[in-house]
Amino acid sequence: MNIEKEEELFRKRILELERLADRRYCPVYSDFLNMNEISVFLMLGKELSGVPYTMYGGYDGAERKMVCFHGDGGEDERSGYPIACVHIRPANAKFSDALTHRDYLGAILNLGIDRCKTGDILIRSNEAYLFCHESIADFICDTLVQVRHTVIRAERTDAAQAGIEPEYQEIAGTLSSVRLDSMISLAFHESRSSLTDAIAAGRVFVNGRVVTSNSFSPKEGDIISVRGLGRFRFEGTGSRSKKGRIGVTLLKYI
C-alpha cells in the first residue's frame, strides 16, 4: 500500500473515532500514533468537527501518543488513558547481553503484537520500560521471557511512582543563526549539507509536525525529532560570542 493510501485510511479512522466520541458522548481513544501519524492528525484542521481532544503517551515528553476525543466535553484525565507500563529486566544481570532499544522492540513484536499497540520504550542501563495498550500488558508479562539470548522478567509497574521519565544529554554550542538544520547538526554531529535530504524528505518533526524547511526557526521548548537519529529539546539561547555566534543549549534524549 502506498503512502497516500495509508494516510487516507488513517484520516478516515481518526475522523470516525471523533464521530464515535460525539455520538456516544464519552471519551474515545486511538491506538498509539507514530510521529508521521501525529503530523497528519495535526494537519486535519477543519476536517475535524471540533470535539475536544488531547494526546498522551504515558509520560510527559512521549514520542508515540494516543489521541483521546473527549466526547463528553471533559478535560484531560490522564488516568483514563488505557496505557500500562511494563518493566522488563534481565533475570540475571551478570549473564545479560548488552540490550538495546531495537532488541527489546524486536522481541516484543515477535510475539505477534502490532506496533500501534505499543508506545515508547525507555532504556535504563540494561532494563526497559515499555508503554503499551492496557489490553496487552498481561500478555506481554506472561509471554515475553527472552530478549536475544537473555532470559528476562516482565512485570507491570506504576510509571508515576517509579519516576519514569526521559534522560537527557545536555549539549551546548554556538550557531550562526537559530535554524533547524543548524540545531540538528549540533545535536547529532552531522553536517548541515547531509541533513538537507532528511528535512526535504519529511523525516524531521517539530512538536509532532513535519517540517521541510531548513531555515525553520524552532522556539524554546520545541521538541525536534529526526527519524533514524533521535530527538532533542531546544532549551534556549545564551549570549553572543565576539564573532556574533549565538549560544544555544539542547537536551538530547538518551
What labels would you give this structure?
single chain; alpha+beta; Ribosomal Protein S8, Chain: A, domain 1; Alpha-Beta Plaits; Structural Genomics Hypothetical 15.5 Kd Protein In mrcA-pckA Intergenic Region, Chain A; 3 domains; six-stranded antiparallel sheet; five-stranded antiparallel sheet; 7 helices; 31% strand; globular
Helix content: 25-40%
CATH topology of the largest domain: Structural Genomics Hypothetical 15.5 Kd Protein In mrcA-pckA Intergenic Region, Chain A
**SS elements, strand count:** 14
The assigned structural class equals alpha+beta
CA-based shape: globular
Q: Please, could you describe this protein's structure?
A:
It is a single chain. 27% of the residues lie in helices and 31% in strands. It is of the alpha+beta class and 254 residues long. Helix 6 (180-188) crosses helix 7. A six-stranded antiparallel β-sheet has the order 9-14-13-12-10-11, with helices on both faces. The chain has helices spanning 3-24, 35-42, 101-109, 137-143, 159-162, 180-188, 192-200, and strands at residues 27-29, 53-56, 66-70, 83-90, 118-124, 127-133, 146-147, 150-157, 168-175, 204-206, 209-210, 223-226, 230-240, 246-253.
